[in-house]
Design brief:
The structure holds 2 protein chains of 2 kinds. Chain A is mainly alpha-helical. In chain A, 77% of the residues lie in helices and 2% in strands. Chain B is mainly α. The chains are: A mainly alpha, B mainly alpha.
């Protein structure tokens, strides 16, 4: 059996080793980050069968919870870890040729720490440990957003840094409050005794957690940093930020609301917030003429949909939400990666400048098209089954409130269709010869793999349905979670 | 307006910290976890400094993360301050002879004190982070008092930084190999209160001391070079 702690330790060790390898050659670092991400992907693959049977509780240092730190590798958390390593691996292949400027070994070092932070947040079962990994995730993304060191990038990085730091401070205060009230930092232990605590401070703590993690999770109105950060970062970083970083933020919010606090009375509020996020994201995307800003706003819309789906609160809707997480991660990573070389070739982010690029870069543009269709929710791509499950499960609740919100989701989809078609129309229009050629192989391989995944899962959603079902039941089963962790004597 | 907003934020944070501290009774052990660490700490980890046993052993994984956060801050800073070419060096005023001699005299003593703090982390107050910060302050003194300082040899610092980080990870992985738990304290615990006790704790703290010392020095060096 592979110990799941390796999922966190391997990227950390790789990051510490990169400066040593940089003495031999700075170019070694890009292969290190690729190999490390591949290793993570393999470990996740090995863990899936075991975790599907029984969640694994890892005791760090051999101390039993709640006295030591523990990881909880359940289908729900492993699902997110799988997305992180899959998208991380594909993006690291893309980065081999794409990242050429600047201090490339630092880029790869930050990238590995970014992966370590994301996996750490989803696997840990300890609120302070989550905070630590959350900080690793956030600080590495601040630096990566500003990696190009142009005016846009630095400005976006600083904006992100300020908002993110406020969020982190909120989380830390929340942790302090919880530790004061419950005397424990272990999630299962807190969940176990939180109902015997009767204090208005509990609500304050929950509010602080939702606000703090909501900033990273880009929940409206906490997402002002996102359009700038996602559009000014190098495209590889936009792909991972959109692909899984905001989902990790949502994971943290969901973990706290469901598992730690068990605050099911908050779900209607979160569902409404999700729809608000969705509509505002889609409406803002509609009027963009910068391709990356458009994609960034569309990420806000998608994250709203995910939050809405999970907040409906039935097992099926959570499955749908998780399906949407996967669908968004694959599609948006693909879109940002494809957009990366389009921008590179025309050296502009303006949509007007992209006219006719579909003829000059056929494979890239075709992948872009698939990604856009999937995001909108057209069959037979992955976005169709995920949106379908969400809408179906919302209708099955038979509550007028959710009927109303489903209407808003459909409205959002219509807006989404209109702006993506406007964009695609430009890309595939006819134009005179220019000296633009296809993206290099290192970029095409990850894009084609993503495309195949999008089509493959879209045609055959049963492949992952069962695992999603396990994951959603795992999230709902709070007592089971407590038992697994505290019973693991 | 901006001042008002920042003032309100500060007040919120201050109230939050105040409220969270209010719930923690000083010197009393209301919580299971705290009681457990106080009662079993020496027996289980061999460190007489309970804070160290919590920081490096019970919650050693957090400490690995915190070391990484500092590493990240240093790397992020240097990535942002990175220049393709070395910038123009500003003329700096040379320090006086008294300052120069004083710094030269104090520097080894400060290093020794820093090393003492992190080597004795499991016995006396302090540890890797504190000792490392003291070491870095010694290097800062060298910069302030030097007569011709144009930056440290960064490659040596990078090696120290990376190696000590790797030592932390490898020590943890050996625990996984020997006992099936990452960061397991697998070395003999020895007799409490002796220098050679507490198993892997002193090794990790020494690694942290070197890492923190070289990182903070690197941050200072980066900032002075760029500005």
């Amino acid at each position: 059996m592979v110990n799941p702690v390796l999922l966190i330790v391997i990227p950390l060790g790789g990051a510490f080793a990169i400066p040593l390898f940089a003495f031999i050659s700075k170019h070694l670092s890009k292969y290190i980050s690729m190999i490390v991400a591949l290793a993570m992907l393999i470990i996740v693959g090995v863990l899936i069968p075991a975790v599907s049977k029984n969640p694994i509780v890892v005791k760090i240092g051999g101390f039993r919870p709640p006295f030591g730190i523990n990881l909880v590798v359940s289908p729900f958390s492993l699902f997110f870890a799988g997305i992180v390593s899959l998208v991380g691996f594909l993006v690291s292949i893309y980065a081999i040729k794409y990242i050429q400027k600047g201090d490339i070994d630092k880029y790869h070092l930050l990238f590995l720490l970014f992966l370590a932070g994301s996996v750490g947040v989803v696997l840990t079962g300890d609120i302070f440990n989550m905070f630590v990994f959350f900080e690793i995730l956030c600080i590495s993304s601040y630096a990566l957003v500003a990696y190009n060191r142009d005016k846009d990038g630095v400005e976006a990085g600083i904006k992100y840094l300020i908002q993110g730091s406020v969020g982190s401070a909120f989380i830390l205060i929340g942790i302090g409050l919880i530790y004061g009230l419950c005397g424990s930092l272990n999630m299962a232990d807190i969940a176990n005794q939180i109902h015997s605590v009767n204090s208005p401070l509990l609500f304050l703590a929950l509010f602080l957690f939702i606000t703090g993690f909501g900033i990273e999770g880009a929940i409206f109105p906490l997402n002002a940093w996102l359009p700038d950060a996602h559009s000014s970062a190098p495209s590889t970083i936009s792909a991972v930020l959109s692909g899984f970083a905001i989902e990790v933020g949502i994971y943290a919010v969901v973990r706290f609301v469901w598992t730690v606090f068990g605050a099911s009375n908050l779900l209607h509020f979160l569902a409404g917030l999700g729809i608000l996020t969705l509509l505002i994201g889609e409406l803002s995307a509609f009027k963009q003429n910068d391709i990356k800003r458009l994609l960034a706003y569309s990420s806000i819309g998608q994250i709203g949909l995910i939050l809405f789906a999970i907040s409906i609160g039935t097992a099926e809707s959570i499955s749908g939400g998780l399906f949407q997480v996967l669908s968004h991660a694959l599609s948006k990573a693909l879109l940002f990666l494809a957009a990366g070389y389009m921008i590179w070739k025309v050296s502009s982010r303006k949509i007007e400048e992209m006219k006719g690029i579909g003829v000059r870069m056929p494979i890239t543009s075709f992948c872009f098209l698939i990604g856009a269709f999937s995001l909108v929710g057209l069959p037979p791509f992955i976005g169709f089954p995920s949106k379908f499950i969400i809408i179906k499960s919302a209708l099955l609740t038979h509550q007028a409130y959710f009927y109303f919100l489903v209407g808003a989701v459909l409205l959002g989809t219509v807006i989404e269709i209109s702006y993506f078609f406007k964009l695609l129309q430009g890309i595939f229009s006819k134009t005179e010869e220019t000296g633009i050629d296809e993206a290099p192989l290192t970029a095409l391989v990850p894009m084609v793999i993503l495309t195949l995944l999008i089509v493959g899962i879209g045609v055959y959603p049963q492949a992952i349905n069962q695992f999603l079902h396990l994951a959603s039941h795992n999230l709902i089963d709070k007592m089971g979670y407590i038992e697994q962790v505290l019973g693991a004597l | 307006m901006r001042k008002a907003v920042s003032f309100i934020l500060v007040v919120i944070i201050a109230i939050g910290i105040g409220l969270s501290l209010q719930e923690v009774p000083f010197g009393k052990t209301k919580s299971e976890v705290r009681k457990y660490c106080l009662e079993k700490g020496i027996e289980q980890t061999g460190a007489t400094n309970i804070v160290t046993s919590v920081v490096v052993n019970y919650r050693g994984f957090d400490t690995l993360g915190e070391v990484t956060v500092l590493f990240l801050a240093a790397i992020g800073l240097s990535a942002i301050l990175y220049r393709e070419k070395e910038g123009e060096r500003k003329n700096r005023r040379r320090s006086s002879l008294i300052l120069y001699t004083g710094c030269k005299f104090l520097f080894p003593l400060i290093l020794l004190f820093g090393a003492y703090i992190f080597i004795h982390g499991h016995l006396t107050p302090g540890g890797g982070f504190q000792g490392g910060a003291i070491v870095a302050s010694g290097f800062l003194l060298v910069i302030l008092g030097s007569r011709s300082w144009w930056g440290f040899n960064r490659s040596k610092m990078k090696i120290t930084e990376s190696l000590s980080g790797l030592i932390f990870v490898v020590v943890g992985l050996l625990g996984l190999l020997y006992g099936g738990h990452f960061l397991l304290n697998y070395l003999p615990k020895g007799i409490p209160n002796e220098l050679f006790s507490a198993g892997i704790i002193p090794i990790i703290y020494i690694a942290i001391g070197f890492k923190v010392g070289s990182e903070i020095t690197g941050i200072i060096d980066d900032m002075i070079r760029s500005g």
